[in-house]
Known about the structure:
The protein is mainly β. The protein has one domain: Autotransporter beta-domain (Lipocalin). The chain contains 1 helix and 12 strands, in the order H-E-E-E-E-E-E-E-E-E-E-E-E.
Amino acid sequence: MRSNNKATFTNRFSLTLLFAAFAFGTAMAADDANIAAGRPLRFDDARTIPFGDRQVEFGGGITGIRNFTPIYTFGGQFKYGFAENQEIGVGVNHFISNGSDSGQFFIHYMREVPVNDSGDAFAIAINAGALYGVGSNDAEVGFRGIMTRRMGENDRLHLNADVSVGEHIPSLGLILGYSRPFNSDGDFRSTLVGEVGLNRVIDDEFTLTLGLGMRRQMANRAVLDFGVLLGGLNRDNNRSLTFNLGYTMSF
């Protein structure tokens, strides 16, 4: 009963934050061109947030895995554009599954290398995290190389290559992301995002993931996002379905 009460409280708290963001977003200003991992899919855009900007991201998700109980995810991150084409951040991801709580505190750094005025860019991102709760004996450091390529007037491709190092979870990953903004309501716009990815835990087989989502401007620089991820598509006994919902604002 105590675990159920904790999960209920966390759900209510997250919903309260989300509704507060809707009300606050009209007065604040998030750059919806800067697509970040988790908002709503897994890939990053190679462009950092603008110099001097402060950005807050938060959201939640639910993952259903065949033959396992659902996993509920809640997280938040604060980012700061502390220099031209560079950003740092701190955040937390919290997980609830089968009455057990666990999570990760992490720090984030990203450096962008623009390619002239073409809209193309390269970047390197580093994320270092410390786990807490169930299974909290490990730390993890992830390195991500990112390339964003403009295709035509609005379409962009985002290639992400990952290496994660931890005591028990060294892994490799490759994600090809896609984004296309379009005007849907005057000055505010929506952005369609999609991805296909391969992930491999060392000494294990690759898993295939597909994702589709939408980012919608709610104010000048405030963005709501929604995404769906299908994981383990090449594994009959370990397929998953994830729904993500989040909100981003900057000032």
